[in-house]
């Protein structure tokens, strides 16, 4: 690892402290180094609050040495007047000697303009240090900005013999309670969670975070003809819920019916969620809905549990082709994570 990578690693580590508090902004960390000693650190702590760079600059005791210092920042310093003044201007004002950047900010308000401001001021700029790490850390932000849709995570549990449910939708537990707890953690990490009509009606899921601490995602249910019973947990208004359909638009507290008029496909759903600034979505089934995301290539990650049971017959699990990211074992269940490439 080079010195630049080492300090960038620290910036990424700092950025991570913002996870869960800065969305829909990216996580960003900043380290200031003078003669090989870290003299300042900061990160973007809270959505709407100061960015990483001013926090790091303010932490430096002797502001006079900034002109000989190198600033390591995981994301390109911003060039726009947003909720705070442009960070690139701040670095120019402080006359820092060198700026090392992880990834370019794809936000059209920034997109290279921050780098240009620095270069125009005669500051030495290096980019692309641990870029993949930074992009992976902020995969939701980058997918949302670049693909104009939420980051999509598919999740399902299948039996040893490849079924996600019995023909009659009976017997919903395939994975063990530890795996299910992990799923609750995952729910707390995403903006929204989606299920189709069959899953909503047969499983009557609550789609909240019960077995973990954290905030509930927005619940999304697809019910084209509004045939779902209103007594289901999904309609109890206990957390923000959107029901996409082709019948009506109607809004009450925590429950919104949205009529999709242009079509009822995955594209239209994701388009609506993008407009609502939902950056990430976890799709929890059923098989038909999962398959439609796969068919349209509108997914980023798939997390597949294989439990220890066999059904012999039933509804087949989706088939997925992607890059294998990890394989692990959770008390007898197998968990495989795929990435779409
Ligand atoms: C930086 N440093 O630490 C972060 C940046 O609404 P604002 O003013 O907070 O601006 C948000 C945008 O600024 C966000 O979409 C992204 O492009 C950039 N985030 N930039 O220089 C930071 N968090
Ligand atoms: Zn900024």
Characterize the structure shown:
By secondary structure, the chain is of the alpha/beta class. It starts with a helix and ends with a strand. The protein has helices at residues 3-16, 52-58, 87-93, 113-120, 131-137, 139-147, 177-189, 197-203, 266-275, 287-295, and strands at residues 29-34, 37-43, 70-75, 98-103, 124-126, 151-158, 163-165, 192-195, 218-222, 241-245, 250-252, 255-259, 280-283, 301-306, 315-316, 323-330, 333-339. The mean pLDDT is 95. The strands form three sheets. Strands 11-12-10-9-8-13-6-14-17-16 form a ten-stranded mixed beta sheet, sandwiched between helices. Strands 2-1-3-4-5 form a five-stranded mixed beta sheet, sandwiched between helices. The protein has a two-stranded antiparallel ribbon with strand order 7-15. Helix 3 runs parallel beside helix 4. Helix 8 links the parallel strand 8 (192-195) and strand 9. It has two domains: 3-143, Cytidine Deaminase, domain 2 (3-Layer(aba) Sandwich), CATH 3.40.140.10; 148-339, Dihydrofolate Reductase, subunit A (3-Layer(aba) Sandwich), CATH 3.40.430.10. The longest helix is centred in the first third of the chain and has 14 residues, at 3-16. It has ten helices and 17 strands. It binds ligand AOF and zinc ion. Ligand AOF binds at residues 25-26, 28, 44, 51-53, 75, 77-78, 82-84, 87, 105, 107, 110. Zinc ion binds next to loops.
């Amino acid at each position: 690892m080079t010195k630049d990578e080492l300090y960038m690693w620290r910036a990424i580590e700092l950025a991570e402290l913002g996870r869960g508090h800065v969305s829909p902004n990216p996580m960003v960390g900043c380290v200031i180094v003078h003669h090989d000693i870290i003299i300042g650190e900061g990160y973007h702590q809270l959505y709407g609050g100061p960015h990483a760079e001013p926090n790091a600059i303010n932490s430096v005791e002797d502001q006079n040495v900034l002109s000989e210092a190198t600033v390591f920042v995981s994301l390109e310093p911003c060039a726009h007047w947003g909720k705070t003044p442009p960070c690139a201007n701040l670095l120019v004002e402080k006359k820092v000697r060198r700026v090392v950047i992880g990834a370019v900010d794809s936000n059209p308000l920034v997109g290279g303009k921050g780098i240009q401001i620095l270069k125009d001021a005669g500051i030495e700029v290096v980019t692309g240090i641990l870029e993949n790490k930074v992009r992976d850390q902020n995969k939701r932000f980058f997918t949302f900005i670049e693909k104009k849709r939420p980051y999509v995570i598919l999740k399902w549990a299948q039996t040893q013999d490849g079924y996600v449910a019995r023909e009659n939708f009976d017997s919903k537990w395939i994975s063990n309670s530890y795996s299910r707890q992990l799923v609750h953690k995952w729910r707390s990490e995403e903006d929204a969670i989606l299920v189709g009509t069959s899953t909503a009606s047969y499983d009557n899921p609550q789609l909240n975070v019960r077995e973990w601490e954290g905030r509930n995602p927005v619940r999304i249910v697809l019910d084209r003809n509004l045939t779902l019973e209103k007594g289901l947990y999904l309609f109890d208004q206990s957390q923000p819920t959107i029901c996409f359909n082709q019948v009506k638009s109607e809004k009450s507290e925590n429950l919104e019916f949205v009529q999709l008029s242009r079509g009822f496909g995955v594209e239209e759903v994701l388009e609506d969620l993008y407009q609502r600034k939902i950056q990430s979505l976890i799709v929890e089934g059923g098989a038909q809905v999962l398959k439609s995301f796969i068919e349209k290539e509108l997914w980023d990650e798939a997390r597949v549990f294989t439990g220890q049971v066999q059904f012999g017959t039933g509804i087949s699990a989706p088939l997925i082709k992607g890059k294998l990211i990890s394989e692990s074992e959770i008390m007898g269940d197998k968990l495989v994570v795929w990435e779409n490439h």
